[in-house]
Here is the input.
Amino acid sequence: MTGVDLLVTGIGELATLRTGPIPRVGAAASELSRIDGAALAVRDGVFASVGPERLVRRSVHLRRGGVEVDAGGGTVVPGFVDAHTHVLFAGDRSDEVERKIRGATYLEIAAAGGGLFRTVRLTRKATAPALLSETSERLARMLRTGTTTAEVKSGYALTHSGELRLLELIPKLAASTGLDLVPTYLGAHAVPPERAENPDAYVEEMVRRTIPEVARRTLAKFVDVFCEPGFFTPSQSERILRAAAALGLGTKIHADEFVYSGGAALAAHLGTRSAEHLLTAPADDRAKLAKAGVTAVLLPVTPFASLSSLSSPGREMVDAGVPVALGSDLSPNSPVESMPLVLAHAVYSARLTPSEALTASTVNAAHAVGADERAGTIAAGRSADFVLFDVPSADRIAYRIGTVPVAVYRQGKHVSSA
Ligand code: ZN
Here is the structure.
């Protein structure tokens, strides 16, 4: 009998997602490894026992001070992994919503001093304590809606020292909020206005100076590039990503979001960990992603928040044999913090099935951010990150649009809603 600190019983359905290859592709993306009438036990922040309730009860006992929780027949799933966020920024752009509704384009908003460069100006000016405080509040709300692991991109400083400053804040945010955060360097989010005369010089600085320092100081796990007309060309993107890969960093691409730019094909060619957005990636390029085993990180709330008529190609990617993961794309342009809401959009807009959406937001998202060893599944020995919903089956989480968890646990500790 193992002494445990937490015993959760009365779980109507436990979706462990522990069986199968990682990432899950095709029919395997619907296999949630469900256990009916389940329980789980946690010792020192790690799952000690998971399975049918009578077996778990037989194998563990509560330590002194341990807690037993009755799940009331609800559903437990792994803590969500948000595979794509721009959560680290200063300021607010809520006033731009009305301009968007009245028909202003992204370029018109940018020309009027709004958009991405407005956030860059505010982020450059913000003190570290202010950035930590604003971002912690967002991360705390993400945690309360079930996100226990999240990727965090830099990209709102767009200078050598400013980007390093943002990356340095990420471990502090992880420590203060308790989330498992995966840092990504996105100096290639856009060419900063003061470098617009010579974008290649900015690329050169990233390749020769910033990326080597990011690698040497292990400030990021991945390097990402916004490969899109008006941002970075496929050849500039390739130069940046090859430099990153040569230094042992993982690679990602923001690809084919607004118009077709060849970003997905480049991702397949380079064998990046992921290609993200992909609203305009054609069938040929979906086949290339599948062949190369590149994970498609889909962000189905972004076209919704952008008032776009496009939708994320969820069904198309799964049917093409591409591993699919989900992210919020949380940013001032797409201010969504709730993964249950992302799952709903993944189903009703991107046309993933509810099971595929759950796979895409747990085990496959963990793979997309290189956290497969520690996140995305529920099994003995893994970090006890899990979410309880008052629904009878995991399929109801996405079905009930924007549903709110009853409880969230990170490393076996109940996340307080206070
Ligand atoms: Zn993004």
